[in-house]
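Example S7 (structure tokens).
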């Protein structure tokens, strides 16, 4: 007789089904007359990377509010999902680097499931939202941020509404089946699922995981969609063929900054094709070949970048 699935497997399957089924009901095309010209800010955009992360703990509300106060047009966030299906904002797949998880849950570490890392880590996907909220995500950066929590996606939207745009990175979405629909459902609940819905809080979505961007496009999402890529993938995406492919399912690109020097023709072609270009990551702590990070960002903007993704939004030209 075939073995029946365990209760845990059935629960996990139901959870994934619900997350996938929670797609917003109304992603039909926006009627032309409803499309606003001011759907995105006028370039150049300063995009605060994980918030004003040079000055406050990355991917936390204090870093986001500071980035907005420093004049960033967008705040960049990394979106992931807890074990019980809550969307939260965290860069690493593990909680090790930016929280006190080791003290709070000393027995909950394990090696990577795929064998890629034999060292034990505390994986976000193993923790419920209530557990994640017990962690201090500020003290690692500075004692004055003690007690800062990992924020939910919902909280981030509420905190930034009317203050800045949000540049949402789907971080490793291949680990979280259905996260695209889950994200759109939250945006729809806030009325931000259509371009131009709130000019004070425009939304751009990006990911390194191209199938995720293709999925959003196939779902009928009309928000700006950027393909994120590192220098090692520049040959593929900054070629004529690559850019034409991108135009089929995305609206912009977020290349790693050294690609301007290595693939200048690709940059020029992307700009010619009308693709917004938002390079990353500009840091005062690591300036490559310029007197200051301000000079470095200016160089990229003069080369045609639509915006710059930076840890130091206050230093953008
Ligand atoms: O927004 C671009 C940048 O955030 C991509 O790299 O690793 O900081 O998420 P990472
Ligand atoms: Ca990111």
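Recovered sequence:
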């Amino acid at each position: 007789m075939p073995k029946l699935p365990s209760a845990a497997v059935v629960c996990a399957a139901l959870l994934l089904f619900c997350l996938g089924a929670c797609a917003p009901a109304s992603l039909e095309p926006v009627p032309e007359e409803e499309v606003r010209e001011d759907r995105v800010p006028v370039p150049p955009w300063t995009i605060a990377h994980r918030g004003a992360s040079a000055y406050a703990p990355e991917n936390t509300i204090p870093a986001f509010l500071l980035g907005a106060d420093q004049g960033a047009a967008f705040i960049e966030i990394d979106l992931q999902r807890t074990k019980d299906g809550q969307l939260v904002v965290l860069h690493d797949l593990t909680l090790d680097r930016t929280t006190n998880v080791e003290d709070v849950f000393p027995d909950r570490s394990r090696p990577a499931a795929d064998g890629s890392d034999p060292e034990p880590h505390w994986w976000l996907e193993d923790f419920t939202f209530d557990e994640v909220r017990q962690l201090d995500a500020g003290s690692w950066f500075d004692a004055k941020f003690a007690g800062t929590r990992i924020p939910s996606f919902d909280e981030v939207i509420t905190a930034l509404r009317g203050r800045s745009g949000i540049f949402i990175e789907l971080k490793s979405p291949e680990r979280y089946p259905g996260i695209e629909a889950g994200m759109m459902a939250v945006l729809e609940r806030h009325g931000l699922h259509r371009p131009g819905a709130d000019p004070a809080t425009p939304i751009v979505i990006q990911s390194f995981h191209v199938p995720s961007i293709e999925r959003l496009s196939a779902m009928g999402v009309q928000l700006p969609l950027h393909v994120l890529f590192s220098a090692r993938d520049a040959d593929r995406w900054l070629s004529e063929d690559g850019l034409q492919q991108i135009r089929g399912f995305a609206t912009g690109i977020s290349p790693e900054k050294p690609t301007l020097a290595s693939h200048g023709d690709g940059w020029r072609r992307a700009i010619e094709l009308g693709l917004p270009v938002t390079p990353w990551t500009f840091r005062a702590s690591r300036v490559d070949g310029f007197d200051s990070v301000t000079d470095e960002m200016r160089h990229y903007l003069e080369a045609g970048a639509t915006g710059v993704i930076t840890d130091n939004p206050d230093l953008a030209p």
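Notes on this example. The beta strands are 45-49, 74-81, 87-89, 165-170, 203-207, 225-229, 252-255, 307-310.
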